[in-house]
From TrEMBL:
Family statement drawn from the similarity comment of this UniProt entry: Belongs to the cation diffusion facilitator (CDF) transporter (TC 2.A.4) family. SLC30A subfamily.
The organism's place on the tree of life at top rank: Bacteria
Subcellular location: Membrane
Protein name in UniProt: Cobalt-zinc-cadmium efflux system protein
Keyword Membrane: yes
Domain Cation efflux protein transmembrane stretches: 39-229
Organism: Aquamicrobium terrae
NCBIfam families listed in its UniProt record: CDF (TIGR01297)
PANTHER family found in the cross-reference section: CATION EFFLUX PROTEIN/ ZINC TRANSPORTER (PTHR11562), RE54080P-RELATED (PTHR11562:SF17)
InterPro entries: Cation_efflux, Cation_efflux_CTD, Cation_efflux_CTD_sf, Cation_efflux_TM, Cation_efflux_TMD_sf, CDF/SLC30A
Residue intervals passing through the bilayer: 38-58, 64-85, 106-124, 136-159, 171-198, 204-221
Amino acid sequence: MAHSHDHDGPDHAPHDHGAHGHGGGGAHVHGSTDKRRVMFAACLTGGFMVAEALGGLFTNSLALLADAGHMLTDTLALSLAWYAFHLAERPATSRMSYGFGRVKTLVAYTNGIAIFVIAIWIVYEAWQRFLEPPPVLGAPMLVIATLGLLVNIAGFLILHGGDRESLNMRGAILHVVGDLLGSVAAIAAALIILATGWNPIDPILSVLVAVIILSTAWRLMREAAHLLLEGTPDTLDRDAIAADLRANVAGLREVHHVHLWSLDGSRHMATLHACLDEGVEASPVVAAIKARLAAEHGVEHATVETEFDRCADGEGDHDGHHGHSQPDVAKHRHYH
């Protein structure tokens, strides 16, 4: 009697989890181009950040100082994002069997925290300035904010063509969008100050930008945390995938213990138990399951455990979901 653990089909022995599809094809192309995009954006943002900080001090504008502070953190965040892409290119090791792709998700979560800190500081400083509005030089502020807007638009266009499924890239884009909004707010504040002389508009618009950034950062952090907790990606439906496999893979009687997760929001993984019909050869069925998962559901790596009778791990999933649809599954025997 034999219980088959067919993790990677007939070629399991030479297979490396970290190398299975992780660095090939479109994923590799996206990774290398995204890395360059982030590097260019970091240089652009960092270069103008110094000029904007000096301009904010000269004009006494919180909107400019807030945007410069945001750009400083963005420069660090973009540099960190670049390093995450750099780490992701490293091959898998015995201790890091999936490689370093998850670093990008961790960086995305860290970027979200950084945005929160910046936004809270902007709100605090804006409240102080709203209580005692300092004089603001509207004309120089307008010039600097306009230049900042052009720089941020350039940075956004550089990053916009990247992989939108990568949380790391989306975190980098979020930082630049925050800068772009900050520049727009600074321009609006400068125009209102020049037209009316009403200085409180500077901290008011700064708070508005902070609130917008906070809401977007929260969504990014929530999604990154979901991935770090090995949650099922929003684009995948575990029960629907199990039903699809049962309906379309010949020789497959039942699917259970299905677990789905993602390394960085774009590279999806799966493990599952496949109960096969008696007399069916396991390897072709496993190959068909993997092909179906890749082609129809975007799962680039799957570990499949085959069985012909009762499941060795029990009747239900570890998370409490009873994955069996056969009413007589309790009568099955597990072949060891």
